[in-house]
Amino acid sequence: MERKPSSTSGTAQTHSAVRGGEGDSEPLHIDDHHILLSPQRWTRRAALWIGAIAVALVAIVFAKGSDLCYSLFERMLTHSRWWPLLVTPLGFAFLSWITQGALRTTRGSGIPQVMAALDREDDAPFRERLLALRVAIGKLVLTLFSMLIGASVGREGPTVHVGAGLMAWFARVFGFRDPEAVSRFALAGGAAGIAAAFNTPLAGVMFAIEELAGTFEHGFSGKVMTAVMIGGVVSLGLVGNYAYFGRVSTSLPLGEAWLAVLAIGVVGGLAGGLFSRSILFASGRLPVLLGRYWRHSPIALAAACGLALALLGVVSGDTVYGTGYAQAREIIAGSHLVTPWFGIEKWLANVVSYIAGIPGGIFSPALAVGAGLGANLAPWLPDTSPTAVILLGMSAYLAGVTQAPLTTSVITMELTDNHDFVLPIIATCLISRAFSSLVCKKPVYRAFAERLLREREASLEGNAAHMHSG
Questions:
Q1: CA nearest 286: which of 267, 305, 269?
Q2: 3-class state of residue 108 by DSSP
Q3: Burial (CB count within 10 angstroms: exposed 0-12, middle 13-18, buried 19+), residue 121
Q4: Sequence-distant (≥ 6) Cβ neighbours of residue 52 within 8 angstroms
Q5: What angle do CA 422, 195, 148 make, to 5 degrees?
Q6: How far apart are CA 264 and CA 58, in angstroms?
Q7: Can you spell out the DSSP letters for 194-213?
Q8: What 3-state DSSP class applies to 361?
């Protein structure tokens, strides 16, 4: 027969579990009615709901701001397509300079920062530095500036970083300072961010499971799904029910056409793995190989990357700047406005933008590269619809970059509002993941997160050695 603890002990356990944010399982003796009416639980729900609404609103503002900033850059191009040769290098140099100090954690996509913060629950100063409110605000503003100068970056990864930072801040404001509680709020915020950025609620849940947490448990699944649902409702109410690339109707019948799944999966996986390997190598070892001056002058390196991007813009007819959303949509629609070399040119633009160390993500630019590669492969697969090849190319390349096949499958399905195409997409993404890992052994976000963790360990060891010598 089960022993019944004292009421005092039960109350203390309940308060600790709820206030600490764990609350995944309750003591068996507690009445469900009292759990439902628990003020602490309702405080946590309020923090989660308000935080999810805030993340969705910020994501919408971020999206509109990104469009506005890039439209201003395009307006500059209409005056003279040579302006980026001056503006883009100077802008890259400015972003590198301003992110040297307290805003250093705003660099790059932002997803590795969230992963690193979730990995070190017991290191409050480290997590605070990665997910501080000023970092979230800085990430948003500086990514918008990246768009303003034509950088080949996306806003989805930064939206994840901003969402996680906002939700962690709401957790602390509402009194939830336990490391596990803050981590779960941050996880929910990151999922809500990716869902609101693409208007893809299912992808938000899958992203949290596959990328941010790497696991699935009852405790956080409810929080993630609640945050995503609330964010989705806010987004739906303000911007409507839309698919990122519009409704794309295509199919892939069984037979010879399924050879396209294998071919595109292999090409997309290798290309995505090569991209990941390139930015990991360049951001870590390239400055060393270039010499002492470049190693100690990240601002000069960023300016050189900006100049390289501007030169690519001249060669490509100004198609490699920004997220690549417009070009990807044109390719899906069968337009011939972009050059046949767009996929390769955009690939190079993404590489130089990322190794510059400026704030910005790789999701949307990766979709654009995949669309370009799919358009290049379509003539070689005459038994398959060109539109189908392009969609599979987008899926394969993004899966190759992130090595997250489930998230990529759901994102592509929701972006095109095509549920009938999900099986070919999943098969392509799985093949792509396998071939990407041959080129880049570790997923790129995880590799960057581990680099942050190693830097933290080195910093702690240095501080300990200094104290010991003192």
A1: 305
A2: strand
A3: middle
A4: 167, 188, 189, 192, 226, 227, 228, 230, 231, 234
A5: 110
A6: 36
A7: HHHHHT-HHHHHHHIIIIII
A8: strand
Give DSSP secondary structure letters for 134-154: HHHHHHHHHHHHHHHTT-S-B
Burial code (b: 16+ CB inside 10 Å, e: under 16) for 292-307 equals eeeeebbbbbbbbbbb
CA distances from 41 to 16, 48, 167, 192 (A): 11, 11, 17, 21
Closest CA to 59 of 201, 159, 205: 159
First to last CA, the chain: 60
Please compute Rg for the chain using Cα positions. 23
Where helices occur in 211-297 by DSSP H, the ranges are 218-239, 259-284, 286-290, 292-295
pLDDT tens, residue order, the chain (470 aa): 443 444 434 434 433 443 344 444 444 444 444 555 667 777 888 888 888 899 889 988 998 999 999 999 999 999 999 999 999 999 999 999 999 887 889 999 999 999 998 888 788 888 888 999 999 999 999 999 999 999 999 988 899 999 999 999 998 888 888 888 888 888 888 888 887 777 766 777 777 777 776 544 545 556 666 776 677 667 666 666 555 555 566 667 766 678 889 999 999 999 999 999 999 988 776 666 665 655 568 898 899 999 999 999 999 999 999 999 889 888 888 776 677 899 999 999 999 999 998 999 998 899 999 999 999 999 998 888 888 899 999 999 999 999 988 888 888 877 777 677 788 888 999 999 999 999 999 999 999 999 999 888 887 777 666 666 65
Which amino acid type is present at position 107? R
Please answer whether residues 7 and 27 qualify as being in contact, where contact means their C-beta atoms are separated by less than 8 angstroms: no
- Residue 62, classed as helix, strand or coil, is helix
Burial per residue of 411-421, b for 16 or more beta-carbon CB atoms within 10 angstroms, e otherwise: bbbbbbebeeb
DSSP structural state of residue 394? H
- The domains located in the chain, with CATH, are 44-239 (1.10.3080.10), 256-453 (1.10.3080.10)
Q: What is the 3-state secondary structure (H, E, C) of 287-337?
A: HHHHCHHHHCCHHHHHHHHHHHHHHHHHHHCCCCCCCCHHHHHHHHCCCCC
* Structure-token pair, residue 39: 């003020």
Q: Residue 193 has which token pair? A: 């961010």
CA distance 447 to 151: 23
User: What's the longest Cα–Cα distance across the chain?
Assistant: 83
